[in-house]
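Problem: given the chain below (385 residues), write out its structure.
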Amino acid sequence: MAQQAEHVLGKDEVIGSNPIISSKKNIGFNDSDVLFLYQNKNYKCQKGCENMILAKALKKGDTIGLFSPSSPVSCSCPNRYKRGKEFLEKKGFKIKEGNLTGKKDFYRSGSIKERAQELNELIRDDSVRCIMSTIGGMNSNSLLPFIDYDALKKDPKIIIGYSDVTALLLGIYEKTGLVTFYGPACAASFGEFPPFSEETYSYFESIVTNNAAVPFTLPTPKEWTDEFIDWEHQERSKKGQANRLITLKEGTAEGRLIGGNLNTISGIFGTSYMPVINKGDILFIEDSLKDIATEERSLSHLKLSGAFEKISGLLLGKHECFDDLASNRTQEDVLKEVLEYDIKFPVLSGFDCCHTHPMLTIPIGVKMRLDSSKQQVTVLERFLK
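Solution.
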């Protein structure tokens, strides 16, 4: 066993979590945290994700718990938060607000321990069947060491959110095997005005409430928007524009879908909370309000990690309010340059599971098919009970 722990895992064996492991002492793991290590390419994932766990589908009348793992949106944008909460109530759900609702600690909703406690109380509440973030922020990764993962394994719930909540979605999936959902947040998504809030809800409902039979091909919205309107003073619907997806490399790929917000992934990459990117995975990434320099940096980080050598396909979400720094270049241009204009796997860009409206809901950790030639994304594996 000591010799196995001394083995250095090569780039072709592990990408994502501790790619170079010399000893558990040097890494700082205790015995319960040590990963099982293989000295061959059969290494699949870390502790917890080898046995997938499914939550039950959500029903009308069920309770949705709302939590604020980072930004204090219920305090900073109370009108939008209230609109989102009432929207869900009108759809027939009971709402349980987390104990940090209406509170703030400067840039965040509470201390690290307070935010973790808010989430854990919802996790341990048997009446709560879905836990939805109010919004993202910048600091959800701080909660990861303090989440009650055992309680989630005993009572699996739908965990949903996007943006900074990526850290929690991926961390929970990695530590428990529970399929999580990249999808709408209460204030950010359902606090929006119709028709986009209603369309986002229809996609949410088809996945988490109707428990769509697989294979299920995700729809493509006819219109989308990233128009900026101050949330607290918004009095109208945002203006939509005709939607189009962009095929950067034609082809078909099937594999486990892993990913989320690109900027947030960098905050857990190389830790035991980031799922290992396996050979054949489909990588999904999206970002918001970043400039082209930051986008190049983030995509280059993935390249340098070896991620692009492992994946079978790439799904790139729309980038909300992308700042090209007067270059007249797009995020697609950046990706092509980073990949040296030699893309070796199917790539579909403009996917509508991102910060723009409306927003699709997708399960993280299940098998998907990406057909960039037909511009279709299909869920192949069951994701709820």
